[in-house]
Amino acid sequence: MTQQSESPTTTTTPGQDSATGHETDHATDHKTDPGSGSGSSVAAASAASAASAAASVPPLARPRPLAERRVWPRAFHDRLTAPLPGLRATARFAREGALRPGPEGLADVPRLPVEPGPLPRADTRTVAVTWAGHASWVVRIGGLTVLTDPVWSRRILGTPARVTPVGVPWEALPRVDAVVISHNHYDHLDAPTLRRLPRDTPIFVPAGLGRWFHRRRFTVVTELDWWEAAELGGVRLDFVPAHHWSKRTLTDTCHSLWGGWVLTGPDGRRVYFAGDTGYGHWFDRIGRRYPGIDLALLPIGAYEPRWWLSDVHCDPEEAVRAAQDLGARRMAPMHWGTFVLSAEPVLEPLTRVRAAWERAGLPREDLWDLPVGASRVLDAR
To answer: What whole-number distance in Å separates Cα of residue 170 and Cα of residue 332?
Structure first.
């Protein structure tokens, strides 16, 4: 993957270069000659290196106003970290026809874990997540109920119907205080689901996607660029980069941005929602910018064939590496077991992520491999 500038916005914020408006968060390698100096000098060099690395991380941006109207570039192709497939790759994909698993790969559909249960009781001190399926979570944080990429529809455009039911009935949801959207692909931005929401629901979206919501008469739509933030009810919502892309029609490729979200409660506890992403350098940078992530919601499915999907979708092993790069205390897998989007067997993402977690020597209790509909509550720090 090629590495791009972090945030080519038109305004300058703390941590940006005043001439370009680009983020100045660049990794720096610090090496010590093991054959020079005493142990104390090596320790001092190590401490200086850590201090230098910390100093290289820009401060968090000040939250922007809610529902701010902004002017964006027409397209965001400069944010891509890998080229989009060309005609040759598209022809190969069509020729090989590796779009769905064969009968043997679908045989485990009845074994996909589904255990719907009641939502946890929550107050302002609760941080809890419930997996509704795919990339849709009910996140309770700081007294708010936040939905991520809500898709409650049985079917999305161009894809067979979901193979597991929605984990949380719409009628069982408490009042939805906010919605965060990662990007505009149909399995993450579902118009029929969003029509169910009151039009004054606060919606947080990538740059360039606000007009889609304005056309549908949503009134509190906040668009953010990478590394920007907003605040609602004491909860901070930061929009962060991802290795992905956007497209909804034949003519709007990369006309809106894509990314993930870091939700930080009033007590400092953090939940990272990755949205849809391949593996790459952004995870380390997100972890440095937002230290102490308590839970990372990371995609583990829709990864085969790798030659076609590796730039935009993590496989299970890469998701575990991403959790480590982030410095996340726990990981909850998502983006699998709901829609059949690619060629891997339907149960394989779960078995592979469990094996990768064990090989990495990570505590088993910190892998929250939830069934669809299940919940977990974070312990207070």
So the answer is: 22
Give one DSSP letter per residue of 59-84, joined into a string: PPPPPPPTT------S--GGG-SSPP
For CA atoms 150, 153, 155, 157, give the dihedral sign.
negative
193 touches 156 (CB < 8 A): no
Q: For residues 147 and 286, give the distance between their C-alpha atoms in angstroms, rounded to a whole number.
A: 21
Residue 30: how many other CB atoms lie within 10 Å: 11
d(CA 115, CA 372): 6
Q: Would you tell me how many other CB atoms lie within 10 Å of the CB of residue 268?
A: 10
First-to-last alpha carbon distance for the chain, in angstroms, is: 37
In whole angstroms, what is the distance from residue 302 CA to residue 312 CA? 10
CB burial of 344-357 (b: ≥16 within 10 Å; e: otherwise) equals bbbbbbbebbbebb
Q: Which of 274, 266, 277, 272 has its CA nearest to residue 291?
A: 272
Which one-letter DSSP state was computed for residue 85? P
Give, for 50, the enclosing helix (H) or strand (E). Answer: helix 39-55
Exposed / middle / buried, residue 173 (Cβ in 10 Å: 0-12, 13-18, 19+): middle
Of 378, 376, 373, 26, nearest to 173 by C-alpha is: 373
SS3 call for 276: coil
122 closest CA partner among 292, 332, 265: 265
pLDDT at 99: 80
Q: Which residues of 309-323 are buried (b: 16+ CB within 10 A; e: fewer)?
A: bbbbbbbbbbbbbbb
Q: Render pLDDT for 73-128 as a digit per residue (tens, 0 to 9).
A: 999 999 999 999 888 888 887 788 778 899 999 999 999 999 999 999 999 999 99
Peptide bond into 165 cis (omega under 30): no
Q: How confident is the model at residue 36 (pLDDT cuts 50, 70, 90)?
A: very low
Type of residue numbered 360: A
| DSSP codes of every residue in 95-162 | HHT-SS--HHHHTTGGGS-B---PPPP--TT-EEEEEEETTEEEEEETTEEEEES----S--TTSPPP
